[in-house]
Design goal:
The complex is a heterodimer of chains A (about 120) and B (about 525).
Chain A lengths: L3 E5 L3 H14 L4 E5 L2 H8 L2 H5 L1 E6 L8 H11 L6 E5 L4 H10 L3 E4 L4 H11 L1
Parallel strand pairs in A: 1-2, 1-3, 3-4, 4-5
Chain B lengths: L1 H16 L3 H60 L2 H24 L8 H10 L4 H13 L4 H32 L6 H81 L13 H65 L4 H31 L6 E3 H10 L3 E7 L7 E3 H17 L4 E9 L3 E8 L6 H8 L4 H4 L1 H13 L2 E5 L5 E8 L4
Parallel strand pairs in B: 2-4
Antiparallel strand pairs in B: 1-3, 4-5, 5-7, 6-7
Helix pairs in contact in B: 2-3, 2-5, 2-6, 2-7, 3-4, 3-6, 4-5, 6-7, 7-8, 8-9, 9-11, 9-14, 10-11, 11-14
Classes of the chains: A alpha/beta (about 120), B alpha+beta (about 525).
Chain lengths: ~120, ~525
């Protein structure tokens, strides 16, 4: 089964960049893009799909259902085996603390350049 | 009994409450003035009564003298048969007889009594005119006293005997002048009756004198008792009055003092004093002041709350704007970097893209500082930040080579969020100017009151920017948002910054107090 990386972000530019850079860093993984927490939760509801997930990059600030709420639902519904990385523009220590308390595996501030981005993805893989 | 006392007490309190202290003092003065005047009055009454009784003594002496003179002349007449002696008898007898007429006038009921007539008779009885009015007053108004009553009774009885003496004289005169054939036995009988009458009168005179002495002693005793009783009564009243005023004043002042203390400590209390004196006025003025203060405080609190709401809205606005802007600005730089990678052949284009990337980085830097400021002033954020996290964040800043020198690092598990922010500002600014990796020795020392951060830089050029907004804080334009951030942190923690530019190694010492923010 081909492994998949899930990117959850309400910004389409961010999603496009992510898809391009992840493809450049790792061509074997399938990249799935979601513009909301609701969409990713729908995807995870399918067991086959869920088993293919390598990790989830989850943005915090999103309309309707933010990153915290989505993370909370993921941890409440599924096992802790799902690797969820909070991938956000915020460097607020409170956000970091809260994310880790809710069960995020890591808290990464979005990089300012493509090379740093690729470096982060490689480290995660 | 207790109820009566309480009623008396409350009545007294109510009445005294209507008096100012000046009037209360006047009342005390009046009370003691009354005591003084009553003493003088009683002394005058005492002098008057004793003087009146002395007049009776003098009157009795004269009365007795002329009665004895008349007896003497009558006896002489019985032997000499000389009419001259008989005239002397009548003349002497007229003195006590005038006293009798005076007494009869004084004894008359109010409407029939004639003072002038009584005075005329008593003057004729050889009494001194200045003493007569006192004698009349004692006779008319003190006759209810048993001793005075006894004196009057003796006087009446003596006057009866005096009439008898007059009659004996008349009988002897008639025998000598009209009846030429009288016997010696008739003369002897008259003279014996005269002697007997004299003896009875002498007895009454002694009784009169004794009664006068008794009356004088009784009056003295009564006056003394009355004076003493009055003095004790007035002094007791004065004492009760003063004690009540003292107790009331002390209680009310104590209540006012306690209320003042409670109010000064920020508490709330209500104090009522309906009295119209100075303390009552002061209490009411005080409570008016308290009410006014509470009103102002509530208005102030309301204003502060409104300002806090506005401030919070403004902070949220800054935070949202900064956050929302950071995403597109970062992506602009990000995209510029990606274009650069795709179009490596065009040098001119790469140069422009470099500029865009640089400005994007600058904008990202400013926005991140805006976010730092937003977090700094937002008190909802916890003050404590993991020290490990601070170090981790600092190490992410490229080109910084940190020599960490933290005293007892094991104990410095948590550090201030403000320290974190301050260090971020410093190192982000150094990073902008960097050409080579920067050696910085960081030391943190802290206690319950203060956190001290020491920064030692290997090169002077690395701290020029920092000195600019630490040492020349008036140059706001040059320092930009960094100055605002540093000032906010220093204000929040009553902090200070010392820059050592004279030593070879540039050293900055920052002290932030824990008790603020």
């Amino acid at each position: 089964m081909k492994k998949s990386i899930l990117i959850v972000d309400d910004n389409p530019v961010e999603l496009k960049i992510a898809q391009r850079l992840i493809s450049r860093a790792q061509s074997e993984c399938e990249v799935h893009l979601f513009s909301s927490g609701k969409d990713v939760l729908n995807f995870l509801s399918d067991q086959v799909s869920r088993l293919s997930v390598l990790f989830i990059l989850l943005d915090l600030n999103m309309p309707h259902k933010n990153g915290f709420e989505t993370l909370q639902e993921i941890r409440a519904s599924y096992s802790n085996d799902l690797k969820v990385i909070i991938f956000t523009n915020s460097s607020d220590p409170e956000d970091r603390k809260k994310s880790l308390e809710l069960g995020a595996n890591e808290f990464i501030v979005k990089p300012s350049g493509p090379s740093e981005y690729i470096e982060i993805i490689k480290n995660l893989l | 009994m207790l109820v009566k006392t309480t009623n008396f007490s409350s009545r007294l309190e109510e009445r005294l409450g209507k008096l100012t202290f000046s009037k209360k003092l006047k009342w005390i003065f009046y009370l003691f003035g009354f005591l003084g005047f009553s003493s003088i009055l009683m002394s005058l009454i005492s002098i008057f009564i004793l003087s009146g009784l002395r007049s009776y003594v003098v009157g009795e002496g004269l009365w007795s003298k002329y009665q004895k003179d008349s007896s003497y002349y009558l006896l002489k007449y019985s032997i000499s048969k000389n009419i001259q002696d008989y005239n002397e008898f009548k003349k002497a007898l007229s003195i006590p007889m005038a006293d009798k007429q005076g007494r009869l006038e004084i004894e008359k009921p109010y409407l029939e009594y004639d003072y002038d007539k009584a005075m005329k008779f008593l003057v004729k009885g050889k009494n001194h005119p200045t003493d007569i009015w006192k004698m009349i007053i004692i006779f008319r108004y003190f006759a209810w006293i048993p001793d005075v009553e006894n004196i009057i009774r003796i006087w009446r009885e003596a006057d009866v005997l005096l009439e008898k003496q007059k009659a004996l004289g008349k009988s002897l005169y008639l025998l000598y002048q009209l009846n030429q054939s009288y016997s010696q036995d008739e003369i002897t009988k008259i003279t014996l009756e005269l002697e007997s009458n004299n003896k009875s009168l002498m007895k009454l005179e002694n009784e009169f004198s004794n009664s006068l002495s008794e009356t004088s002693r009784l009056f003295s005793l009564l006056i003394l008792i009355f004076q003493l009783g009055l003095t004790v009564l007035v002094l007791a009243q004065g004492f009760v009055f003063l004690k009540f005023i003292r107790r009331q004043t002390a209680t009310r002042l104590k209540r006012l003092e306690q209320a003042t203390k409670i109010i000064s400590e920020g508490g709330d209390t209500k104090l009522y004093d309906s009295a119209e004196d100075e303390i009552g006025n002061l209490t009411r003025a005080f409570m008016q002041m308290v009410d006014k203060r509470q009103l102002i405080e509530s208005q102030l609190e309301e204003t502060v709350n409104k300002l806090e709401v506005k401030h919070r809205h403004l902070e949220q606005f800054i935070s949202c704007i900064a956050h929302d802007m950071s995403e597109p600005v970062r992506l602009m730089g990000f995209n510029a970097a990606m274009i650069k990678e795709e179009m490596k052949s065009d040098e001119y284009l790469l140069e422009y893209i470099d500029e865009i990337e640089s400005m994007g980085g600058e904008a990202t830097n400013i926005i991140s500082k805006l976010l730092l400021y937003s977090r700094l002033v937002n008190t909802n954020h916890g003050e404590e930040v993991s020290f490990e996290f601070i170090l981790e964040e600092l190490r992410k800043i490229n080109g910084i080579k940190l020599a960490i020198n933290v005293k007892q690092l094991e104990e410095v598990i948590f550090c201030s969020h403000s320290v974190h922010t301050l260090l971020q500002i410093i190192f982000m600014d150094i990073e902008k100017e960097k050409t080579d990796p920067i050696d910085v020795k960081l030391s943190i020392d802290h206690n319950n009151k203060e956190v001290k951060i020491g920064l030692e830089f290997s090169k002077e050029s690395h701290v020029e920017n920092i000195i600019q907004y630490f040492q020349h804080q008036t140059n706001r334009l040059g320092a930009g948002i960094n100055w605002v951030l540093v000032e906010a942190i220093l204000n929040k923690h009553d902090g200070r910054i010392e820059v050592d530019t004279e030593s070879k190694i540039n050293k900055i010492m920052i002290s932030l107090k824990r008790n603020k923010g």
